[in-house]
Amino acid sequence: MPELPEIEAWRRALDGPVSAFPIEKAGPAHVATLKTFDPPLSSLEGRRLARAERRAKRLLFPTEDDELVLLVHLMTAGRLRILRAGEKGPKTPAFRLLFQGGSQLVLTEAGSKKRAGVWLLTPEEAELELGHLGPDALHIGADRLSEILTGESRRLHSLLRDQRAIAGIGRAWANEILHHAQLSPYALSRETAPEEVERLALAIDAELTRGLELRERGANDKRTYRVHDKLGEPCYVCGTPIARVDFEEHTIYYCPSCQTGGRVLKDRRLSRLLR
Ligand SMILES: [Zn+2]
Questions:
Q1: In Å, how far are 95, 160, 206, 212 from 60, measured between CA atoms?
Q2: Per-residue model confidence as pLDDT tens digits over 44-99
Q3: How far apart are the CA of 30 and the centre of ligand 1, in A?
Q4: How far apart are the CA of 180 and the centre of ligand 1, in A?
Q5: How far apart (Å, rounded) are the C-alpha atoms in residues 275 and 120?
Q6: pTM of the model
Q7: Which residues, 6 or more positions from 134, have their beta carbon under 8 angstroms from its beta carbon?
Q8: Percentages helix, strand, coil for the chain, rounded to the nearest 5?
């Protein structure tokens, strides 16, 4: 699933084009993609979008008159792109906005499962919809991070991915961040020393910024990730083969030398069964 760096790169690319012209026609939308019916999509027509915003892993497009917000969650396989006037697009996109002048914003979704969603909301409804999200991960800072870590005792990998605690990080960037911070994915949040919290805050910014810069240049997953999905490849710091462990329905990648003092992490699902 695209995470903060990927969504933020898309937001930057969409910001200018979506606000260049008023909307001529909103829709059609796939019945599984459009999650709201009131206000109707047609109420966007004639209005202009002010800009593209990002909240956690979602994109928001408020109208210039501040009356409506178009919210998009791409989930795993959704993609948003701008088609210039006359440019050929997909025959049946999951969602489409046609702008005056002929450019289009189209949402497509690979595969047959329709999981991406589009909501047309009032600004108040949008606030409620996003109210459960924690603070944005980028530039979170050590002080705020420390409060979050001491708030509950959780494994670091799990806590970093919890959008209610800290928003924007998923399993891929949690792997990159914890490796950069030289912290075990299984380390407990409340047992993290102040200098480790400091290191984690720096690693969050360093990795998310690195990812954003690469994604803005169009880098693919293989070039962007250094730890995630790199089982058996040499760690970029020490050369030890990257290891993998299953934890809470997720697969974690880590370096046993840099992060766990040489210890190989046990599969938590398996050990629970054996206990
Ligand atoms: Zn290493």
A1: 15, 23, 25, 18
A2: 999 999 999 999 999 999 999 999 999 999 999 999 999 999 999 998 899 999 99
A3: 46
A4: 9
A5: 49
A6: 0.93
A7: 148, 162, 163, 164, 165, 166, 167
A8: 35, 20, 45
